[in-house]
Design a protein that fits this description.
The structure holds two protein chains of two kinds.
Chain A: E1 2-9, H1 13-20, H2 26-29, E2 33-39, E3 49-56, E4 59-71, E5 75-80, E6 85-97, E7 100-113, H3 118-165
Antiparallel strand pairs in A: 1-7, 2-3, 3-4, 4-5, 5-6, 6-7
Chain B: H1 27-30, H2 35-59, H3 70-87, E1 91-93, E2 104-108, H4 117-130, E3 136-140, H5 142-146, E4 158-160, H6 163-171, E5 175-178, H7 182-186, H8 203-211, E6 215-221, E7 228-231, H9 234-239, H10 242-246, E8 253-256, E9 260-263, E10 277-280, H11 286-290, H12 296-317
Parallel strand pairs in B: 1-10, 2-5, 2-6, 3-4, 3-5
Antiparallel strand pairs in B: 6-10, 7-8, 8-9
Helix pairs in contact in B: 3-4, 6-8
The chains are: A alpha+beta, B alpha/beta.
């Protein structure tokens, strides 16, 4: 099953990247996530591994995942090592226009399933889809709020410093 | 999935709740007044029952821990998820209290008759939380693991309940789920659904001490609402010698689907979609908390009290039977 959700964030892609590249932020930003821990020495980049779980009705579903793409600040993808089969991807596309501040189109994709589970697997994937999609939508809204608030704080701080300098 | 460490009725430490029936007090002796023909028939029946019992007991496989099949479990997780999410609306809390690795003794209260929804819900949650790669064995009654049509349960890691099998599981580094209350607790009347009833079986305490493994109490509620359990039928079971023949101390009577009046529950029943809530409590390290040589009775009293308090809290959350 493949789920895709997207949102526009009023911030440069680098600001969004800072949040999604930080494993510590996932428990705060991602809805339904009950666990997101670094597994091993490497915290970031291709090869970094995390133990993650997402609450979907009666179970926390997930497992050990590994980052397979790390293209700052546009693409971050992971795939499952153990647990349910999953493949996820963040796609950031910055849109710069002369008249507007930079905006970033953020897309979050998640494919999941259990190979060999037959009809029950197909049924479970489809019944879980609304919950998973809801988690992704909420996650994107929380990401947008967090990044834009940080942008506002940064801008306010810059204004204060400018006033103090004059 | 009924029985905990009850292979020895008196247990190694606890007092016997159901002393063995004295010789001559069985069904055969009660037929003595029926005449020679009746006596002969009764003896024939007894021999037949013993033969069947012997076959069943001999079919109970010695625990082959390698029968557990992680791929099989993984492929069937969606089916478990469907049952737990749609039918039981299962909710498992506190899995973070289970140590991340190493052997651990999970001690649960048991509910729901032979359908044991609490085990289904907990197995799903454990397998998804820790991954199917982590060894997880559940101790079950001999009858359950010896039924040919239930052989698939062994792929989930189910083994016959006995101290030896539990020890082998722990020695292999597995998480072992034991239900000390066994068939006694699982068939308790529905109105006692909020009671922990281990029947003074304490073998699990000795097991945790011998292997120096932490105990994680696992408390569940809702199973006793999947049918109307009326009585355990302990006296009938004793009169029919089920204890001696099949290690069955009960002959439960319940009202449930599709049989309406369900005696024995050997064929199971269609459970009502009661909400099942399970809570794993913080791990108890016996020697850290009770000294180098913990007192069995003290540990038993402490753990069951802890579980009873949790069960009381879970029961207080429930507003309506079945709906939760």
């Amino acid at each position: 099953m493949r789920t895709v959700e997207a949102i526009d964030v009023s911030a440069p892609a680098q600001a969004v990247w800072r949040v999604i590249a930080d494993p510590q932020s996932y428990l705060h930003v991602m809805a339904g996530i009950t666990r997101w821990e670094v597994s091993g020495e490497q915290r970031r980049g291709v090869g970094a591994r995390y133990k993650m779980l997402m609450r979907v009705r009666s179970a926390d579903i997930g497992g050990l995942i590994e980052i397979v793409e790390w293209d700052e600040p546009t693409e971050l993808a992971w795939t499952s090592v153990t647990g349910l089969d999953q493949r996820g991807r963040w796609r950031l596309r910055e849109r710069v226009t002369p008249s507007h501040p930079p905006r970033t189109h953020v897309e979050l994709r998640l494919s999941y399933g259990v190979a060999g589970s037959g009809l029950p697997g197909w049924l479970a994937e489809h019944l879980a889809a609304p919950t998973v999609a809801g988690h992704l939508r909420t996650s994107l809204r929380q990401l947008k709020r967090r990044v834009e608030h940080e942008q506002l704080r940064t801008a306010a701080s810059a204004r204060r410093e400018a006033r103090a300098a004059t | 999935m009924q029985e905990g460490l009850t292979a020895h009725p008196a247990g190694r430490n606890g007092r016997a709740e159901h002393p063995p029936t004295p010789p001559g007090d069985g069904a055969a002796s009660r037929t003595s007044g029926l005449g020679a023909a009746g006596l002969g028939a009764a003896r024939l029946l007894e021999r037949a029952a013993r033969s069947v019992a012997g076959t069943v007991v001999s079919r109970a496989p010695r625990a082959d821990l390698d029968e557990r099949d992680p791929d099989y479990i993984r492929e069937h997780l969606p089916l478990l998820w469907l049952a737990c999410s749609l039918w039981y609306r299962g909710e498992v809390r506190g899995l973070g209290n289970v140590p991340e690795e190493g052997p651990v003794l999970l001690v649960g209260n048991h509910s729901g008759g032979n359908m044991t929804p609490d085990t289904v819900v907990f197995t799903l949650a454990f397998s998804t939380h820790f991954g199917v790669e982590r060894r997880f064995h559940q101790l079950a009654h001999n009858l359950v693991v010896s039924m040919p049509f239930l052989s698939f349960l062994r792929k989930y890691g189910m083994v016959a309940a006995s101290p030896e099998n539990a020890e082998r599981g722990l020695a292999a580094g597995a998480a072992v789920l034991v239900y000390p209350g066994g068939d006694r607790e699982v068939h308790r009347p529905s109105w006692q659904g909020d009671r922990i009833d281990f029947g003074w079986r304490k073998g699990w305490v000795r097991l945790a001490m011998d292997h120096d493994v932490p105990i994680v109490p696992v408390v569940s509620i809702g199973g006793q609402e999947t049918a109307l359990f009326v009585t355990r039928g302990e006296r009938i079971a004793s009169a029919l010698m089920l204890d001696r023949l099949f290690r069955l101390k009960v002959l439960p009577v319940s009202i449930g689907l599709p049989w309406v009046l369900n005696v024995g529950d050997l064929l199971g029943h269609i459970p009502l979609p009661a909400k099942i809530t399970v809570e794993a409590l913080p791990a108890i390290h016996l020697r850290e908390e009770f000294g180098a040589d913990p007192d069995l009775d003290e540990v038993y009293a402490y753990v069951t009290r802890l579980m009873q308090d949790t069960l009381d809290a879970l029961a207080a959350e429930r507003r309506l039977p079945v709906l939760g």
